[in-house]
Amino acid sequence: MTRRIPLPVWLTSLLLYVFLYAPIAVVIVYSFNAARYGGPWRGFTLRWYQSLLDNADKVAAARNTIVLGLASTAVSTLLGTGLGYGLSRYRFPGKRLFAWLMYIPVVIPDIVMAVAMLMFYALARDLLGLFELGMTTMVIAHVTFQIPFVAIVVRSRLVGMDPAIEEAAHDLGATSWQTFRHVTLPQILPAVVAGAMLAFTLSLDDFVVSFFTTGPGATTLPILIYSSVKRGITPDINALSSIIVLVSVVGTVAVALLQRPPRTEGTKT
Amino acid sequence: MKGPVLATAESRRVLEDAPSAIEIEGVSRSFGDFKALDAVSLRIRQGELFSLLGPSGCGKTTLLRIIGGLDLADDGVVRIGGVDARAIPAHKRPVNTVFQSYALFPHLNVRDNVAFGLRMKKVPEREVAARVARALELVQIGGFADRKPLQLSGGQKQRVALARALVNEPQVLLLDEPLGALDLKLRKELQVELLSLQRRLGITFVFVTHDQEEALVLSDRIAVMRAGRIEQLGPAHALYERPRNRFVGSFLGEVNLVEGTVERTAPGEFVAVTALGPLRAETRPGDPAPYGKVTLAIRPEKVRMVTDGTPGENRAQATVEAVIYIGSESHYQLRAGELRFTAYAMNARATSRELREGERVQVELPASALIVLED
Amino acid sequence: MGDPAPAARLRPARREIRFGEALTPLQGLARSALTAGPAIGWVTLFLLLPLLGIVLFSVLTRGPYGELQLPFTFGSYSRLAGFGLFGFDPQYPLIILRSVVLAAGTTAVCLLAAFPLAFFIAGLPGRAKGIALTLVVIPFWTNLLIRTYAWQILFAPDALLTRAAVAVGLAEEGMPLYPSAFAVYVGMLCAYLPFLVLPLYTAVEKIDWSIAEAASDLGADGRRVFRHAILPQVMPGMVAGMILVFVPATGQFVIPDLLGGAKTVLIGNAIQQQFGASRDWPFGSAIALVAMALVLLGLWLQTRTAGKRGEEGLL
Known about the structure:
- The complex is a heterotrimer of chains A (269), B (375) and C (315).
- Chain A contains twelve helices and no strands.
- Chain A is an all-alpha fold and 269 residues long.
- Chain A starts with 6 loop residues before the first helix and ends in an 11-residue tail after the last helix.
- In chain B, helix 2 packs across helix 3 (125-138), helix 2 runs parallel beside helix 4 and helix 3 crosses helix 4 (154-166).
- By secondary structure, chain C is mostly helical.
- Chain C has a domain at 105-265 and 309-314: Orthogonal Bundle (MetI-like fold).
- Chain C starts with 15 loop residues before the first strand and ends with a helix.
- The chains are: A mainly alpha (269), B alpha+beta (375), C mainly alpha (315).
- Chains B and C meet through strand 2 and strand 4 of B and loops of C.
């Protein structure tokens, strides 16, 4: 319902929007700043972006980040879709408990999760000689916090589906697998894709968990940025950050568009 | 399409000796504490258009779904074409359903929607194409084959749902209030089309509806249901002219009720004392034996209004309380003493004199038109 | 329509039909295992069991080289409560207190900011609403690390904001506005505002304004109308959002680390220290457990007050 919005509310809200976007804006703006060690504006330049390509560490980190993102997204989308489907379609003992437990990765503070995984790996290393810290451990950790997000997205799409459509498929002679393949899957595909993009964005943005579960040669961009920032912000870091921010923004917008409720069927008669 | 082409000239067909398409014995279904179906039994004959009629919650849709295999009865037997269907899952049953919400696959176009069942059964593509084309023509939607459901109107979606079901040549077609979402004019058009379709194809139709007029128009036989039970089952004519009880009487059209006490009986008739005086009623074989307190019913169109004033059997004085003019007929609300009832009169003659409010008339309740109700 | 013959009353195999297919309980179980099983197994193995492990480790002892040893002891917990090796040491109770205060303060500030924003968005016409909402969500999905270090730039000695603060007398010339408690709060607000805005907006959107109008009609002034007619209606969404902010804020590590400096040690930094430099895993586990306890408390509160709203609040 639209009502006249009082001026103070307008102003405050505008200020808040500015506030929310100020950090993003400043990073992007300063990535073009010609000043060498940060500080005030000294002219427009693209050389920080160019320098990124020359820097072997950064390129390696970028590669790791992308590989990590893709690998973890692939696994978590598969598992998360299954979870969303299973939770919405079937009943099994302990379902309510498990459904509730699946939310833990969502609300848990990063650091607690990171620490838990770290200890798991340490134990596995001591007892089984497995899981040296590195890419594998990071992928596993990322998958763990991605799964619930994918599951939530897929599940809400399934819950909103007209059950009569699947009944119709069976009525017309489709077996369970045929129904899933030809009817259910096409229906939930937008949600699965949205979930995958969400998962990828989460992986890209993650710092704390990665920090604790990384190993030699497996540095990711957020870890790189953190170590650099600890030493002092340099413009090329701003350039790097801008790219990451851009990817996140594109991803979020794409997810928002994909998640638009399906257009309601025409009501002409 | 297989099946004999039956003559459409007959108003009501008699399929007494036809084999059973569906047999239901003692079927019950409960949802928690709610008993949706209570030991229901009936037999649907091959080739007939059978309706399940009743108010919301009476169990008609539940029964339909159990026949279709979309729900499982707690008790009882369901036979389709003589075969016990309980162990047969929905996708193997020789029945198809037209859903109330049409349930078209949104990601497929009309042609692929209709072809779905055939493709799932791995019918060769050439045959699929031919059968789909025939089905689309049958429901007159050939021109829309490439459209998606989103782009169709309600009536068009209805036809696609029908084609999608019929193309599989099922033994029985189940229709769950298929015309419910359409406007009046379209509904009447489609009723006629469905009827002629059924006659042409000869496929058994089981039709669920809450619209009594629709049931009367379409059905060979109707089962009127209430609270999980069948109140009365029979041809439309029998149900309308000889309802068993108050519920069936008032569900199918309007009915006037008169309470009375039986004074004397004779073969084929009896006399009851009522607020309108003594009324003689004719009984038919199979009617409940009247004694003690009875409820008599008479349809409004059977109530005769006379203005010649001569006393006669089953006549009483009444006052016109209101007149509702509907063009081809007029409905009169009458009052005789404490009793209120309705009479319909066709405005058959151009110069029919219409009765006016406050006028006094004599009404006659013909003995042959009085029905004894069971409750 | 008569009584069916007794033989007809056969009981069919105990199956259940859902979405058009008949499944025996065993089949249903198998399906569940196939679809949801892997994910449940994964999360249980890699997260839930380790979390239980944290409970275990918190009562172990730290060996000389930082490894885990028996005997079992509650030494870690007594240290947390302030009773360290050398008598009463308030360091850790203070850390916990500081974290809780910070989280509470962040929640309060977020609340103050979320209300106008929620009402603003709710008051926009149709399409603009969706856009405004997405605009709130976008920063939420960008990297927190980047957004946080950006405040270091914004709070640099010669930055606009800093100079304005100096001019007003709130800061020293030539000094950045960080590290400071103020900077931490700013960073936290920036990070957690969307968490509160989204559920609050959902509640505000559904407000029945006729109640407010009736109240005003009956003579209530602005504040009263808000307190009695509007606040009760948005309470569930508000509480959901508050929990969504408070719970993760207690364990926040990056923001105090970058904007708060060495002096501001909170639960998050403390855990990191114990698992990093200090290598006192039992102690770190104990701290993590406290953080987890706060999480579970928050989750429990949420299920009690808001039912299923938790899911919606996150997306």
